[in-house]
Amino acid sequence: MNWNQLQYVITIAEEKSITKAAQKLYISQPSLSLSIQALEKETGIPLFERNRGEMKLTYAGSLFYEWAISTIHSHTQLEWKLGDIVSGSRTLIRLGLSPHRSERLLAPVLERFYSMYENCDIQIIEQPTYILRQMLEEDKLDLILDISSPDTINYESELLVKESFVLAIPDSLCPFSDPSQKEEDISATPQIHLPALSAIPFILLSEDHDLGKISRKICETAAFHPNIRCICTSSNTAFSLARRGMGIAFLPEIYARTTSFPDIHFFTPDHFHDTRDICAVYRKNIYHHAQFQALLALLREIVPAIYRAA
Predict the structure, then answer these.
(1) Cα dist. 302→107, 108, 109, 112, 127 in Å?
(2) Residue-wise pLDDT tens digits, 207-265
(3) Which domain holds residue 51?
(4) Distance CA 119, CA 124 (A)
(5) Domain count, the chain
(6) Cα–Cα nearest to 254, from 305, 219, 193
């Protein structure tokens, strides 16, 4: 039994096909079949069964598959530990966050990080929350900057900041005679009564988006039925449409903290004061190399400072 055979079992189980697995592994199909046959002979029990052309794990195969994933994961952790000892070794950190956080939070963090570590590559993946969580669970990401994980057994969610919500109202739709009289400090942002906006169109995020759910909760708690003009899946798109005067958008407070446009004004709902936790989320009980720890320390320092800056 060798490392390659463990990866062969994992890939066949995931692809459900010897042909597809061989293509993904860049080896010939006969070589892959012979390797699996040798492994089954060594273990003394079938690991796969064919079912209508699909390769499916037997019960023993399922146990072997879980063990193989755990073993390869442990091997990777050992390689990282040894790599930390080797001077000049390159590392990779896969960081996931939503596009609007990436645009507003990452630049100062990465600027500081690369002044300390030039031998580390950071891969930035910008996706909504539900995709980021799925990628973290599939080990396609090392760290996400997002709302806290509901899985407190396997994941650490380090609180960075408690985030509130604002309404972005374009100048052309602002119901006040002098909307320019607004405070930049979110704690002093003017409040607004939602029913006063009943005639103005709204831009909402879809319900599978965390902010989409929160926006609807804000409206429900005010017994307010927004005049919905359109629904989108991106906070940045909602903000762009609001700036064009197409409607009012619910947004995370980071927009009010980091955005200054004469044609847009920010308000807070007068009845809703809930917040959500923005966290650095990563796996527990695994080794995190020095560069990962340094990036995490910078997120702890810089992200709260950006929210306090206005």
Answers:
(1) 10, 8, 7, 10, 22
(2) 988 899 999 999 999 999 999 999 998 999 999 999 999 999 999 999 988 877 788 99
(3) 3-84
(4) 16
(5) 3
(6) 305
